[in-house]
Amino acid sequence: MSFLKQWSLLRVLLLSTLLGQVSLVSAEGVVLSAVDFNALSGDNLQLSFEMTGKVAKPKVFHTDNPARIVLDFEGVKSGLKQKRNVINAGGINSFFAVESGDRLRVVINLLKLVAYDVKLKDNRVIVTLNSSGRMARDSHKKLTEKTLTQFASLIPEQSINKIDFRRGAKGEGRLLIYLSNPNTVVNTQEKSGKIVLSFLNTSLPAMYAKKMDVLDFATPVSMIEAKKLGSRVKVIITPAKADYAYSSFQEDGVLILEVRPITTAEQEEKRKNKFPYTGERLSLNFQDIEIRSVLQILADFTDLNILASDSVGGNLTLRLNDVPWDQALDFVMKSKGLSKRQAGNVILVAPTAEIRKLEEEEIESQKVAKRLEPLKTEYIQINYAKANNFRNIILGNSSRSANGCTVTAGGSGSRSGLNGGSGSNSLGANSRGNNNSSSGGGGNSNSNGGGNYSLLSDRGTAIVDSRTNTLIIKDTAKNIEEISKMILKLDRQVRQVLIEARIVIAQEGFAQELGVKFGAAYTGGDIGVGGTTGGNDGGVGDIVGPVLTNLAASNPYGALGMTLSDGANYILNLEVTALQDKNKAEFVSNPKVLTSDRCKAIIKQGTQIPYKTVSQNGTSVQFKDAQIILEVTPQITPSGSVIMQLKINKDAPGSFQNDGQLSIDTRSVETSVRIENGETVVLGGVFEGESRNLISTVPWFSDLPLVGWMFRKTVDSTSKKELLIFITPKIVKDSMRMR
């Protein structure tokens, strides 16, 4: 009997194994291709998950808080374009599909937990939700501690390597959890005024399984507790105060949870957005009461003056229990088509149409009063800007840049390079003319490009006296007062920036020459061999007689000479010369220029190249600029850093064209960079390279085998230049002056 039981058990196990294999084979290569949803009769909504093949019924469970339905498909991949898909229909907010190994998990986010049913039909998995039905207790298992433990085994094992806490720059608390797996899924929720992080199938080192008191960090967090619960890890964050906001995000393998305090303004704004009524609460319960009596009750309760127009009338029945009085007043007015306008402690209640008519009449009366109001003239001294710019603002025109805002510095370097010359450093300066004439003109808002953006009335005018930089306004007293307030706020001293530029041209060159001087003469003497150095090519005595070839290197630093004689009357002279030269040079200029915030500074360095042109009037000399031009527009940020708009042009003389015109080789770079005050930005990478290979030969003799080299001279030279520009902006204090 025991044997039969064992055999039956073995058959059951074998059958289960075979069924599992068949299920896996059938699901192999299955892909979730599409998801459709349809609204059914009543409050039912149906989600249909389309598969590319047959698939086993998924494992299903749900959670109450947050309300979710979870489906796990074994051996299925996702073919959806995006993980998260928004529905916002039938109580479903959204759903997302996430792959984990050979398993696909689909999570349906609900507005609230409702009754649902899951069916398998052909290649589709159909989920039907009934928003009006109650949750069937026995239809599906609720996510309990037991089911959490079961499903945790489906998640790959992971661990928490380290837990750290820091204080942010703005007083926020930053909890950093270092994870072994960057794809770790964490569930974050608020429970009983605490923030709870839950990790499934995660291990925790014993040294971090403890409570950490972080109150001394002066953040909204007072306590952090990490503990191991079976295969799960919970991290509980206890805030120090109830008013806080938190956010979490993952960067690589680090989970960061930030808890920041809510300011008083944010608390007030949050409270207003949640419930805009702030009045003292009261209760009202009346049957068929006159609306004027209700207004009288509210006036007595609030100690406000409520004025009702003659059109306000009628009765109403109301029962309001413990509501703010301003909310009660709004409900009463809406029920009778009324509106209110409040000025101080007086409230006017009237029909909406009557209120609108009163406002229109008030606007018309104000226009008439403006047309009859006397004009006055005001002389406003402008201190730190051009008066004409303020005139453009008042007239509604776009204000252009002030003339003289661009500051120019030029000149060559004040330091010399290794092998280069030196130059003088010069600075440009602001120039301001002494103009005794007045400019500007009047006009109404319809006569300028500003349209209705003019701050003047129809009768107002604005003119400028450039000599004294004074703005002359003629308008009503109210408009002049508004314009004066605007000028007082905008006419401020602009901060200045000292731009220090160091322009470095690094040059590196290499030249190699090899040549032969060969001659013969009839004389007598012995054979001699000698060498020369230092540019003297007569180490063995000058070559006597005529020189057959003179292809020696220019200014050679070394030579080898040889005289061959047969002891009789002929001498053969042979001198091999060589030159190899390496040079490095650095040419530096260091111009400085002081400019205002958001004003362009221009630094130029270079030469003007003369060239001749021929025309009907004869030959004339013209000049072309070949310069390095650096344009810098600084912008000082509220944090004290500097944003610079940089434009660099490097022009160099090119070649003459057939028509005699000189070409200019141009290179240009434009960029924007943000650096801290006093830091240096380096711009480089502008290279110029030149390579030359020159061969001088004696015809026919240079082609002779073996000895042809004695009739050739070779020159190999390379040169490379690199332009480096170092720019350092320094914000100038009011007391500092440029030196």
Task: Note down, in words, how this protein is organized.
The protein is of the alpha+beta class and 739 residues long. Among the domains are: 30-130, Sandwich (Immunoglobulin-like), CATH 2.60.40.3500; 154-268, Immunoglobulin-like (Sandwich); 279-358, Phage tail protein beta-alpha-beta fold; 373-397 and 454-492, Ribosomal Protein S8, Chain: A, domain 1 (2-Layer Sandwich), CATH 3.30.1370; 585-732, no CATH class. The protein has eight helices and 43 strands. Strands 32, 33, 34, 35, 36, 37, 42 and 43 form an eight-stranded antiparallel beta sheet that branches. A six-stranded mixed beta sheet has the order 28-27-38-39-40-41, with no helix packed on it. It has a five-stranded mixed beta sheet with strand order 5-1-2-10-9, with no helix packed on it. Residues 1-27, 134-148, 399-404, 406-451, 527-549 and 562-572 have low confidence and may be disordered.
